[in-house]
Amino acid sequence: MGPERGIYLASRSPRRRELLAQIGVRFHLLLFRALPQADAEVDEAVVPGEAPREYVTRVSRAKAQAGWRRMLQRNLPRAPVLAADTAVVLEGRILGKPADREEAAGMLAALSGRRHEVLTAVAVTCEERTELAVSASEVEFRALAANEIRDYVASGEADDKAGAYAIQGGAARFVREMRGSYSGVMGLPLYETAQLLDNTGFRNERRNPH
Questions:
Q1: Predicted pLDDT at 118
Q2: DSSP-based three-state secondary structure for 30
Q3: DSSP string, 168-209
Q4: Is 101 helix (H, G, I), strand (E, B) or coil?
C-alpha cells in the first residue's frame, strides 16, 4: 500500500508534522482545498450536551473519513489517512481555538492557577475501517499575572491554538505540573498513534540517515 509505504496526514498543523517525523513516520499532506464546501462534511461545532471525549472522537473520525474520501476523489495511491483533534477542557467546558486575542486572554485567565484536561483523539482510516484512540492528560498552570497574559497573547502564539496556548512554546513557563502525554498535549499522542498505525497493518520503514 502506497504512497511509498507512507500515510496521508489530514491536518494543517505543523506540530503534528513535526511529531510524525519525530518517530520516523513517512507521510504526505492531504489538505482540503480552500473552497466554501470543502470542509462542510466535518462539523467542528460542539453539539449541545456533547461530552468532551465524544466531541474529539467524533471530529477526529470525521476528519479521517473525509480525508479518505478526498483521497479517492483525487485518485491518489491508497494509504492510511490519519487525523486528530485536540480539546482543552476546564471543568467540563471545551475551550476551543480563540476567535480573537481578547478571547485568548480570557481563556488564559480562566486557566490561571487551575488544573485542566487536554484530550486528543487520533483516528486512522484505511479502507472501510477507522481505528480510534484518545489520550487524556492533566495540566496545571501556576497563577498568571495580567501582564504575562497580555505579553503572551501579543506574541501571537495563542492564535489558532486550542485553549489559547502551546505547551511546546512560551507557555511552557506557565506549567506547574503535567500528567499524561506531552505529545498528546501538543496535538498528537505518539504512543497511541504508533499503536493505531500498527493495528491498520502499516509498517513504517525509517530510513537510516547514514
A1: 98
A2: coil
A3: TTGGGGGEEEEES-HHHHHT--HHHHHHHHHHTT----PPP-
A4: helix
Report the candidate in 160, 79, 161 with the shortest Cα–Cα distance to residue 118. 161
Place of cell 472522537: 57
Q: What predicted TM-score, i.e. pTM, was given to this entire model?
A: 0.88
- The C-alpha cell 513504517 sits at 204
Identify residue 161 by its one-letter amino acid code.
Answer: K
**Among residues 43, 85, 100, 198, which one is catalytic?**
85
pLDDT means per 10 residues, the chain with 210 residues, are 74 92 92 51 82 96 95 94 96 94 98 98 94 97 98 96 95 97 97 91 51
DSSP H helical segments within 23-93, as ranges?
Answer: 52-73
DSSP string, 126-169: ETTEEEEEEEEEEEEEPP--HHHHHHHHHTTTTTT-GGG--TTT
Reply yes or no on whether 43 is catalytic. Answer: no
Residue 63 sits at the vertex; the CA angle it makes with 106 and 166, to the nearest 5 degrees, is 35
Backbone angles phi, psi at 146, to 5 degrees: -60, -40
In angstroms, rounded to a whole number, what is the distance separating the alpha carbons of residues 53 and 84? 13
* Residue with grid cell 489538505, as numbered in its chain: 31
Peptide bond into 3 cis (omega under 30): yes
